[in-house]
Amino acid sequence: MVEQGLVKESVFSFWLNRNAEEEEGGELVFGGVDPNHYKGKHTYVPVTQKGYWQFDMGDVLIDGEESGYCSGGCSAIADSGTSLLAGPTTVVTMINHAIGATGVVSQECKAVVEQYGQTIMDLLLSEAQPKKICSQVGLCTFDGRHGVSAGIESVVDDKNGISSGLHDAMCPACEMAVVWMQNQLRQNETQDRILNYVNELCERLPSPMGESAVECGSISSMPNVSFTIGGKVFDLSPKEYILKVGEGAAAQCISGFTGLDIAPPRGPLWILGDMFMGRYHTVFDYGNLRVGFAEAA
């Protein structure tokens, strides 16, 4: 279209109408933006990976509190072809816990907390380098190139009765525990409460199929979840990130957050699907290789 001169600008933009009562489902504009469907100005961020409309994103906030996982930066993709919001299991588990979503109980995670929880806490309090803690306690090997850890290939550990498969899975569980503990230490929680909280998180890991159920009656008391893009905070309210299926007593409510773990350097990665793009009018600026978001109207 651009090459044939059929459009004024080399951009396209999405407005997704989230009001199911209205006839018009939304609008995709090729070659421009419709000023009727957004308020204020768009916040633009440069594309970092062509082909995926990928850009850099800051931290994720749960009820205004930083999760800490993306404080050093994460990548994100705005994707109209994804219905939900996909992100690192570490953060999605924290969100699941905060909104009371059901999850999968991870025995590997519980084993880490039981056997290494206090040691991890002591290392964090002694200001050890967080990325190296899981290798210090012997659950991961430190990969200096990316500053991340990798699972140790192990044989059966007769002393602790940990089989090879369980031990391999304990490396990512340990890394999640480090982030969760850091988050709670920043909030000045006591050590006992932190260990209890992390143990509770071990029961809230997102299911492999993605959907975690929540109580429909508690939506109004759930926290906002926010994304930092271009230095600006973009909030999503519970009504915007919870999917309600059916009506009345038969209604089911599902968390819009699903786990997605992409290893560095490509990840950590978030996919901001229709739940995000419904709240925020999205401009894909091909001419300037940037993506923009503004409050939808």
Descriptive keywords:
Cathepsin D, subunit A, domain 1, alpha+beta, 297 residues
Compact overview of the structure:
The protein is α+β, with helices and mostly antiparallel strands and 297 residues long.
Description:
The protein has 297 residues and is of the alpha+beta class. The chain folds into 2 domains: 37-94 and 212-296, Beta Barrel (Cathepsin D, subunit A, domain 1), CATH 2.40.70.10; 107-201, no CATH class. It is 27% helix and 29% strand. The chain contains 7 helices and 19 strands. The protein has helices at residues 89-99, 107-125, 130-136, 164-186, 191-201, 238-241, 274-279, and strands spanning 11-16, 26-30, 38-46, 54-57, 60-62, 65-66, 74-78, 85-87, 140-143, 148-151, 213-214, 225-229, 232-236, 242-245, 252-255, 257-259, 269-272, 280-285, 290-296. The chain has a 5-stranded antiparallel β-sheet with strand order 2-1-18-19-3. A hairpin with a 4-residue loop joins β18 (280-285) and β19 (290-296). α2 (107-125) packs across α4. It starts with 10 loop residues before the first strand and ends with a strand.
Layout of strands and helices, then pairs:
Layout (H helix, E strand, L loop, with lengths): L10 E6 L9 E5 L7 E9 L7 E4 L2 E3 L2 E2 L7 E5 L6 E3 L1 H11 L7 H19 L4 H7 L3 E4 L4 E4 L12 H23 L4 H11 L11 E2 L10 E5 L2 E5 L1 H4 E4 L6 E4 L1 E3 L9 E4 L1 H6 E6 L4 E7 L1
Parallel strand pairs: 7-17, 8-16
Antiparallel strand pairs: 1-2, 1-18, 3-19, 4-7, 5-6, 5-12, 8-17, 9-10, 11-15, 12-13, 14-15, 18-19
Helix pairs in contact: 2-4, 2-5, 3-4, 4-5
